[in-house]
Description:
- The chain is an alpha/beta fold.
- It is about 35% helix and about 20% strand.
- It folds into two domains: about 10-105 and about 255-275, 3-Layer(aba) Sandwich (Rossmann fold), CATH 3.40.50; about 110-250, NAD(P)-binding Rossmann-like Domain (Rossmann fold, 3-Layer(aba) Sandwich), CATH 3.40.50.
- A six-stranded mixed β-sheet has the order 2-1-3-5-6-4. Strands 9-8-7-10-11-12 form a six-stranded parallel β-sheet, sandwiched between helices.
- The termini are far apart.
- The protein binds NADP nicotinamide-adenine-dinucleotide phosphate (NAP).
Amino acid sequence: MTLPSIPLAGVIGNPIAHSKSPVLHGHWLKTYDIAGHYVPLEVEADALGDVLKAMPKMGFVGCNVTIPHKERVMQFVDQITDRATLIGAVNTLIFLNDGSILGDNTDGYGFIENLRQGAPEWDASAGPAVVLGAGGAARAVVASLLDAGAPEILLTNRTRVRADKLREDFGARVKVVEWVQAGNILEEGATLVNTTSLGMTGKSELRVPMDGLRKETVVTDLVYTPLTTNFLRTANEIGCVTVDGLGMLLHQAVPGFERWFGRRPVVDDETRRVVLG
Ligand code: NAP
């Protein structure tokens, strides 16, 4: 008798010990009673190609990719989804039956789904979005906000050239504003997003003056340690609907899990509780 093969998936990064993905996927595997495993894989940059070649032969059906390999991994995939091409990074790999590798990026999807779940009344097309920061995560945020119908993105970043590059890549609906002016544009946003790492445990605080923020603005922070950043706390005090960043991490994992294990997982309070430990 041949036993059915047990699908394997995992997350490739370096370092990887801090990753919450194994706990998240492990929880879903258990919840849906799926015979599969999801493991953390610490991989050096120069071993990435060899590791990806070997994984399908070892029973892996796909994997997530995280820092620092999200851009470099693109050279090892055979097909890339449009959204991953636009974002310029891949965070989800699917090992197809014909031996080829499909690369996708689900960060923007996770960002939008988190807002939809946390602020059901939120509508991207209600007005401009103000985006603080222009790093890797900001690319996914800008791409997905434009796709969801935001009429304009007011983008500001400490290092101006990074914001200019996003404008170049995403077009005229993106308007770049000087970092020192950040406080002055908050009142224009129907949506306000912090994509900088400021406010994260161990980092400096985000010091953008928030007095101009209107209570109608939906505010979200990509930082999720702490869960309630000072940025979100201030927005809350002003009366804004706020959405923390943990949900983005949880929702971005949904498409990969569904492709690998054949079941679409639900992000609910129990998922949050398990991942928060
Ligand atoms: P990144 O590429 O390194 O970008 C960091 C961003 O923070 C840049 O815009 C950078 O501005 C800005 N920044 C850093 N220190 C600053 C300072 N002292 N003053 C002003 N700006 C500063 O990182 P990333 O991958 O985009 O990630 C950004 C944050 O999002 C991290 O906290 C990450 O954990 C979080 N994140 C969360 C999720 C989620 O699922 N919730 C997903 C992805 C990322 P410069 O360009 O001027 O350096």
